[in-house]
UniProtKB/TrEMBL annotation:
Its cofactor is [4Fe-4S] cluster. Binds 1 [4Fe-4S] cluster per subunit. Belongs to the quinolinate synthase family. Type 2 subfamily. InterPro entries: NadA (IPR003473), NadA_sf (IPR036094), Quinolinate_synth_type2 (IPR023066). Its EC number is 2.5.1.72. This is Quinolinate synthase. GO terms for cellular component: cytosol. [4Fe-4S] cluster binds at C109, C194, C280. One of its GO terms (biological process) is 'de novo' NAD+ biosynthetic process from L-aspartate. Keywords: 4Fe-4S, Cytoplasm, Iron, Iron-sulfur, Metal-binding, Pyridine nucleotide biosynthesis, Transferase. Pfam families: NadA. It comes from the Bacteria. Iminosuccinate binds at H46, S64, Y135, V136, N137, S152, H220, P221, E222, T237. It comes from Mesorhizobium tamadayense.
C-alpha cells in the first residue's frame, strides 16, 4: 500500500479515528489488501464493525439482509465474514462451494444462543400447523427447523407473505412484539433478547432529549417496544442509515451498537451523532489482526452438516425470494 493509498483511506475515517491511532492499523490494512488480491478473497462486514474494518478493508458492507443478498453474488473463492458466527454460517449456506472464514470462533450472539433446534421442534408440537419464522440471528440448525427466515429489515413483509392468521416468530421477543404492532397477523414469540438492545430504556431517550434538544432518536426493532414507541423512527441498521441519508437530521442518536454511529457518521459530516455507547462484545472480537490471520492461515473455516445445510438454505432462500 502506497503512502497515497494510506492517506486516502485515512481521509475516509479521520472524523472517527484519531490520528494517533491510525499508524497502529496501517500494517494490518496493507497486509489484508494484499492477501485479498493474492487469494481471490473478499471481506463482508456488518454495520457494527469498527471503522478501520468497515471503511478500510471491507468489500461488501451492510446489515444482515444486505450481506445475505450480496453473498449470493460474491465472485471471490474465499469469503471472510467480519461479523458474528451465524452470519458466517448464512454466507456458507448461500455459497456452499466457497471457503467461508470467521476470524474469531468466539464471535457469537445472545439471540442465537437463546434457542436450539430442539426448542423449535417443541414449539411445533405445541402449535401444530403454525408456520415458523426464524430471525437470521440463529444457528443453521435452528434455521433448518424453520419454514422461512427473516431479518429486522424484512420481518413484517415475511410474516405477511405467508398469508396465515398466526405465525411463530423466533427467537427475539422484542422484534416479534414490534412487528406484531404493525400487522394484523398474530405472533407467538420466544423469550430471546439481544444483549445490546435490551439495555436501552425509555428513560435513556428522555435523558438524551433533555441533554440534546432537538435530537432525532432512531431505534433498532430489537429494542424493547416501549423504547420503539418513545423513538422518532424504528428500523434495521440499513433503514437507520437510509433515514440519516434521506432526512439529514442536524442531530441524531442511533439506539443500537455504537460502531454503527461511527460508520454512518463518516458519510455525514454535517450531522451531529450523539452516541449512547452499548458495545457488542462479539462484534468487537473481530479485529484487523484476526482478519489478517484468517487470510494468512485459512483460519476458522465454516462447515455445516449437509443434513442441516439443505433445509436451512431453503429457509434463507425463501426469505430472499420475497
Amino acid at each position: 500500500m502506497t503512502g497515497a493509498t494510506a492517506a486516502a483511506l485515512y481521509e475516509r475515517v479521520r472524523r472517527v479515528i484519531p490520528p494517533v491511532e491510525w499508524p497502529t492499523f496501517v500494517e494490518d490494512i496493507e497486509a489484508i489488501l494484499a492477501l485479498k488480491r493474492e487469494r481471490n478473497a473478499i471481506i463482508l462486514a456488518h454495520n457494527y464493525q469498527t471503522p478501520e474494518i468497515f471503511h478500510c478493508v471491507a468489500d461488501i458492507v451492510g446489515d444482515s439482509l444486505a450481506l445475505a443478498r450480496k453473498a449470493v453474488t460474491a465472485e471471490a473463492q474465499i469469503i471472510v465474514l467480519a461479523g458474528v458466527y451465524f452470519m458466517a454460517e448464512t454466507a456458507k449456506l448461500l455459497n456452499p462451494n466457497k471457503t467461508v472464514l470467521i476470524p474469531d470462533l468466539g464471535a457469537g450472539c445472545s439471540l442465537a444462543d437463546s434457542i436450539t433446534a430442539q426448542d423449535v421442534r417443541l414449539m411445533r408440537q405445541r402449535y401444530p400447523e403454525i408456520p415458523v419464522v426464524t430471525y437470521v440471528n440463529t444457528s443453521a440448525a435452528v434455521k433448518a427447523e424453520s419454514d422461512i427466515c427473516c431479518t429486522s429489515g424484512n420481518a413484517k413483509a415475511v410474516v405477511e407473505s405467508l398469508g396465515v392468521p398466526r405465525v411463530i416468530m423466533l427467537p427475539d421477543e422484542y422484534l416479534a412484539k414490534n412487528v406484531s404492532a404493525e400487522t394484523n397477523v398474530g405472533i407467538i414469540a420466544w423469550k430471546g433478547h439481544c444483549e445490546v438492545h435490551e439495555r436501552f430504556t425509555p428513560a435513556d431517550i428522555r435523558e438524551l432529549r433533555a441533554a440534546h434538544p432537538g435530537v432525532v432518536v432512531l431505534a433498532h426493532p430489537e429494542c424493547p417496544p416501549d423504547v420503539v414507541i418513545e423513538a422518532d423512527f424504528s428500523g434495521s441498521t440499513a433503514a437507520m442509515s437510509d433515514y440519516v441519508e434521506r432526512e439529514k437530521p442536524p442531530r441524531v442518536v442511533l439506539m443500537t451498537e455504537c460502531s454503527m454511529s461511527d460508520n454512518v457518521a463518516v458519510a455525514h459530516p454535517d450531522v451531529e451523532f450523539v452516541r449512547p455507547c452499548n458495545l457488542c462484545p462479539h462484534m468487537k472480537s473481530i479485529t484487523l489482526a484476526n482478519i489478517r490471520s484468517a487470510l494468512e492461515e485459512n483460519r476458522h473455516e465454516v462447515r455445516i452438516d449437509p443434513r442441516i445445510a439443505g433445509p436451512a438454505r431453503r429457509a434463507v432462500e425463501r426469505m430472499l425470494s420475497i
